[in-house]
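Practice problem: predict the structure.
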Amino acid sequence: MPIQSSIRLGLMIATGNLAVCACIGLVLHLATKPAPLISTAPGTATATSDPVVLPSPGSATRQPPTRTTTTTTTRAGIPAGFTTVNGPGGMTTVIPAGWSPMIGSGPGSVEATDPADATRNLRYGGSPHDSVDILTSHVEFAETLEKRPGHQRLRLDRVIFHGTDAVDWEFRVDGDDGTRHVRSLYWRQDGYEYFVYAGSAEERWPETQAILDTMIDNATP
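Answer:
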């Protein structure tokens, strides 16, 4: 074979070998190429096994409702040193013996004064009431009084007395003769508003309070 033909044949064989090797290498590269990474789409949240529970609207802590007090009676006969009295509207209660009741200044009111101390007095009675809520009516009256100098409210509470809404009002008032302490209980039955009241100088309030408690314990209806 001529020399030139031998050289040409050798080059063709070499070129063919290179092409085969290249194809084999490409196949191996594709076979070993790692799979593409999969990323989470933007904005996708990851759920947890223990989700956080957000408070619902209006679930803020609320203050407990205003306490309602129940005042009960424990009548077991007329207490020693007291006498039964009848008031307007068919009410009854007791006052210390020797305290003479007289018609009071307010509607349906009776007043009894300590014969040994003209500054210490009791009141009781009853009269028809209007349609205004019992607490609302006394709050309005209290706010009017408290515009005057020297009035200090101690409490003005809605309570339950004889199974119905009532108001327990207590206050002090400073005057030329010193400080006066007053407490009264108002309740409603059958279209009437009834009350018992006691007032005295501050220094005599503990014993006056005891008299009022006895009046309340023995009040009807």
